[in-house]
Amino acid sequence: MKTAVDIYKLLPKTNCGTCGMPTCFGFATKVGAHMASISSCPNLSPDAKTALSAELENQQPSRGTVYEQALISLRPKIAALDFAKTAAAFGAELIDPDTLELSFLGDKYRITRERILDKSGGEPVPFISILIYNHLSMPNPPALAGEWITFSSVPASHAKDKAWTGHVEEVIARHFSDNIKGLKQACGRLGGVISTSKGSHDAAYEFLFFPRYPVLLQFYDTIPAEGFPAQCKLLLDKTVDKYLDIESIVLLGEEFAGRMTGKT
């Protein structure tokens, strides 16, 4: 049975993003969890693609997916946290010594030392829990800088620039091209607040992905007469890499783009 690591070893490791994931390892985890087809990689050698396709077609999905396995490895780290200090550092509410309540993309989640629960009382999909755990695991986050920066200005972001542009900003720009009204409705639905930031943008909204994770969306609509396509910029606080690792920053951006466009 091929694991995500086994699959990754056969991939080109170019992180080209064509498959829809920002990294080859991210794609390998989805293939291993039966959430993506190996044929989505255009750069895989024909022999490797044939061999993997044959084996993966006969491989039965396992309940212990890579995401569930990641949660198992993260839970001890969360269980060991001082919840009072964590609440103060990340803007969460301390319900009791063993329970936090945290806002994530506009929804409330309860975090205990064993699991995460959504507003319905059930556990969210593993992907969401992993992002929340990764956020709360960041050590000693500083006060927000109050200074907006582009994703390319985030330390160690160079390998993910293409993924951020193609899977986050361009997704939003294409979907709302010549549809400012729809963009504003989507921003309002996701808790966006109209921003007073200055500039030539046609719309600007501020969001809180987490209580200490502000994001500024600036949208520039298409100008057909001048041949300019719609553009979207998602700006982040200068301290963003102290609140989430670079891989999770991209995955969170992709989740936001999916919710904005109704694809997730």
Which outline best applies?
A: globular
| Domain unit count | 3
Strand % is 15-25%
CATH class term of the largest domain: Alpha Beta
The counted number of beta strands is: 9
Structural class by sheet pairing and helices: alpha+beta
What is the chains' assembly state? single chain
Give the distance, in angstroms, between the N- and C-terminal Cα atoms.
Answer: 29 Å
Could you name the CATH topology of the largest domain? TATA-Binding Protein
What's the CATH architecture name of the largest domain?
2-Layer Sandwich
Runs with pLDDT <50, length 5+?
60-64
- Return Rg in Å: 20 Å
Secondary-structure element pattern, one letter each? HHHHHEEEEHEHHEEEEH
Helix content: 25-40%
Q: The biggest beta sheet, please?
A: 5 strands, antiparallel
Number of helices: 9
Mean pLDDT: 88
Strand order of the largest sheet: 5-9-8-7-6
Set out the fold topology.
Layout: H1 4-10, H2 24-32, H3 46-57, H4 66-79, H5 83-90, E1 93-96, E2 99-104, E3 107-112, E4 116-117, H6 126-136, E5 148-149, H7 161-175, H8 180-189, E6 193-194, E7 203-210, E8 213-220, E9 231-237, H9 246-261
Antiparallel strand pairs: 1-2, 2-3, 3-4, 5-9, 6-7, 7-8, 8-9
